[in-house]
Design brief:
The complex is a heterodimer of chains A (about 300) and B (about 350). Chain A is mainly alpha-helical and about 300 residues long. Chain A is built from 14 helices and two strands, in the order H-E-E-H-H-H-H-H-H-H-H-H-H-H-H-H. Classes of the chains: A mainly alpha (about 300), B mainly alpha (about 350). At the A-B interface, helix 1, helix 4, helix 5, helix 6 and helix 8 of A face helix 1, helix 2, helix 5, helix 6 and helix 7 of B.
Chain lengths: ~300, ~350
């Protein structure tokens, strides 16, 4: 095919290419800090971590390639790992729904016209801005089996002290309770979602004769389902990486009942200096998180109603 | 980027809002975003266009609102009581902390619990600061948080500008990459990062905690980008015609308009770093470098014979106060933060 390009249009095209090139350079310059950071602090570490997970590496000696041994050990020879994994899944299966249900109900309570609403909202939110270490100290004192607030009140009524953090049965639940206490941000997210529910839907439901309970299940819950799904996924991910409170409050005890994934991973890496083993744990964690995310999307995601979505 | 605590479950639910929003962003990128210049596409797609089906229940009688006025009054009182009880329960641990921080020994170990100790012992605060150099920890934390806020502000606003207000080949691929980094648990990069910083000789300094903030983090870049997209392009086009460079437009037009978003970023980053425990735990050895988070734990473990609760509680109080004050002063910004990260559509 004959190309009918005149000199004018060629130079025009060249100018366009030059302009595009200029745009590219300027754009790259703006994102350069992030891009360099991505290469140094993310891309390389991902590759390195993958490599370390197939080695035995104690930091002092160079890494020694051992194939799949770390992964095999995790699942076949490390009983503690299985306990830890079980504990963590318990925290996800019990703790995440607890946070979801309680903070959703609280948000519904707060979504009514009332005096001092801002005050209540602040009261519910403040625990969640308390830094983790500070809340560990506060709860260490709250749960103190002799003079902590809870057991002190029990003692007032001559009820024997309950070892909240050192009892095999209660330690997990005591930690989960702290999570519920500090879930103010979830309440705030739900509150935002609830306030976006159009009033007209409730009015329509009332006209249709739906009672309060039916309005809750058929209007409130579906309309806030994206927020519920969102909080479910973020708190699931957060729980799998839960470190500071179990580390400070129980050190994984009693008898590893609160030894969680992130704690055991940290111990392997920075106390036992099993860097290869810990890297393998990190990758297993990544896979588990992906699997749980997909699971939540599959089971709950189908029921999620996105406003403006067209069937 | 070693945001070991950026996804910690406590504070973090608000910031990580993003992951939710992110889905729609990725979907948009795949479908309409590339081809469309329409700013409406850039806003949030949460406008209700049609109603979900409300299941009809024929058997329910239309009741109107037959409850008597006095019954309604009763339920109002019950609800108000419930609200006050719940609110009190939530702040109870903190009130208990404050109360303990000014107690003497006898009051601490008194059954039933003493809520309003008399006489009060405010000198606990001064004495606690002498058990460990808490003032130093406080300064360390301030410096660390300040530097990290500065780092994130500079790097993230630059990258967000490149990802939102400029059009260039490869931009969207890189931005998708930037979003993808948020999905990765920090544990995966934690060990190689430690080894890199060790090789650089940065262990026992704040460098591993501060320097990466000057390279931005996916979450904040996303946050700022969303905000930059809402600034009308007419402003920068006019400046272009006047011959302004991109850097000028960025500094003189976009940044001043983006102050609310920058405030949110600064606030969140301050909270994150003040709260960061794992990072300093990994990288800092010398106690004189400790931030408040490590200092508090050091304090707790340094009572050899008997833990003096009033001291520990007053130190805890001191470590929380900056955050509470900051929060109360900036509640509006917090709410804005939620709006920007896409929650309140």
């Amino acid at each position: 095919m004959a190309v009918l390009s005149t000199a004018a249009s060629r130079s025009h095209r060249q100018a366009a290419t030059r302009r595009e090139w200029r745009r590219f350079v300027i754009g790259m310059l703006f994102v350069m800090p992030w891009l360099l950071g991505f290469i140094f602090w993310t891309a390389y570490p991902i590759l390195a971590s993958l490599y370390y997970s197939f080695t035995a590496y104690d930091v002092l000696n160079p890494p020694r390639f051992i194939g799949w041994a770390n992964y095999v050990n995790l699942f076949q020879h490390d009983n503690l790992f299985q306990t830890v994994l079980g504990n963590t899944i318990y925290f996800v299966v019990v703790g995440v729904p607890a946070v979801l249900i309680i903070s959703f109900l609280m948000a519904n309570l707060l979504n009514k016209e009332m005096r001092f609403r801002a005050l209540f909202r602040t009261a519910f939110f403040v625990p969640s801005i308390v830094p983790a270490v500070a809340s560990a100290m506060v709860w260490l004192w709250m749960y103190n089996p002799n003079y902590g607030l809870i057991d002190n009140i029990l003692a007032t009524f001559n009820i024997p002290a309950v070892p909240w953090l050192s009892s095999l049965r209660l330690a997990k639940l005591s930690l989960i309770f702290i999570n519920v206490w500090a879930s103010g941000s979830a309440i705030l997210i739900f509150l935002g979602a609830l306030q976006d529910v159009p009033r007209s839907l409730y009015d329509a439901a009332v006209v249709d004769g739906a009672n309060r309970w039916q309005r809750f299940w058929n209007v409130t819950v579906p309309m806030s389902s994206p927020a519920i799904l969102f909080v479910a996924i973020t708190s699931m991910i957060g729980t799998f990486q839960y470190f500071t409170l179990p580390w400070l409050l129980t050190q994984g005890g009693p008898d590893n009942a609160t030894n969680l994934y992130a704690v055991y991973l940290y111990q392997n890496a920075f106390q036992f200096f099993k860097m290869g083993y810990a890297s393998a744990m990190a990758w297993v964690l990544f896979v588990i998180i992906v699997v749980f995310t997909v699971l939540i999307f599959r089971t709950g995601g189908a029921k999620v109603y996105y406003g403006g979505q067209v069937d | 980027m070693p945001t070991s605590d950026h996804r910690r479950c406590q504070l973090v639910a608000i910031p990580t809002t993003v992951i939710w929003e992110e889905r729609s962003v990725l979907a948009r990128m795949a479908t309409s975003y590339l081809s469309s210049r329409d700013l409406a596409h850039v806003g949030y797609p949460r406008v209700v266009q049609h109603q979900p089906s409300i299941r009809h229940n024929r058997r329910v009688k239309i009741t109107g609102d037959p409850t008597g006025a006095h019954k309604r009054w009763l339920s109002r009182v019950a609800l108000t009581a419930l609200w006050w009880t719940l609110a009190l329960l939530f702040v109870l641990p903190l009130l208990w902390m404050i109360s303990t921080s000014v107690k003497n020994d006898a009051q601490v170990y008194h059954v039933p619990p003493v809520w309003l100790p008399w006489p009060v012992r405010p000198q606990n605060y001064l004495e606690a600061l002498r058990v460990q150099p808490f003032g130093l920890f406080f300064l360390n934390s301030l410096q660390y948080s300040g530097a990290a806020v500065l780092g994130e502000l500079v790097s993230c606003s630059l990258a967000a500008y490149g990802f939102s207000r400029l059009r260039w080949r490869g931009r969207d691929v890189l931005f998708a990459l930037c979003l993808a980094t948020m999905m990765l648990p920090d544990q995966v990069t934690m060990i190689p990062l430690f080894l890199i910083f060790r090789a650089l000789g940065w262990i026992n300094t704040y460098r591993p905690l501060i320097i990466p903030t000057f390279f931005g983090s996916g979450y904040f870049i996303f946050l700022l980008r969303q905000f930059f997209l809402t600034i009308p392009t007419e402003f920068s086009e006019a400046a272009h015609i006047d011959g302004a460079t991109e850097l000028r437009i960025f500094l003189d037009i976009v940044l001043p308009l983006a102050k609310p978003a920058l405030a949110v970023l600064a606030l969140f980053e301050f909270f994150f770093t003040w709260d960061n425990y794992l990072g300093p735990l990994i990288y800092l050895d010398s106690t004189h470098l400790y931030p408040v988070a490590l200092g508090l734990q050091l304090m707790q473990s340094s009572f050899v014979e008997k833990l003096i609760w009033p001291y520990l509680m007053s130190a805890t109080m001191v470590s929380i106060v900056p955050l509470i004050v900051l929060f109360l002063l900036t509640q509006r910004v917090f709410v804005q933060g939620i709006a920007i990260s896409g929650l309140r559509g």
